[in-house]
């Protein structure tokens, strides 16, 4: 799902409940974002119990600002509407999704 407004972002996090939510902050002009898009899509197909969302920072500047996005691609992880982590590389994303998906309690990283 591509989110374009802050209210939509908040609603998506609320509707996810206690599921892990992975948010891909992206932009159409961002080459690395386009390169990682198939990988992100593959994760969404492999982890169907996880909610995967995309936020285009140009279409949703209020969401990008609220989430303090400074570069793309950036990935944030949420559980129970709270941020539980953030990663910026495909390799770390590949490791983090299965680990966070198995945890019942949120964990925090310094990002």
TrEMBL record:
Lineage: Eukaryota, Metazoa, Chordata, Craniata, Vertebrata
Source species, domain of life: Eukaryota
Listed name of the protein: Thioredoxin domain-containing protein
Thioredoxin domain sequence ranges: 1-102
Source organism (scientific name): Oncorhynchus kisutch (Coho salmon)
Gene3D superfamilies to which the protein is assigned, alphabetical: Glutaredoxin
InterPro entries in alphabetical order: Thioredoxin-like_sf, Thioredoxin_CS, Thioredoxin_domain
CDD domains membership: TRX_family
Entry keyword set: Disulfide bond, Redox-active center
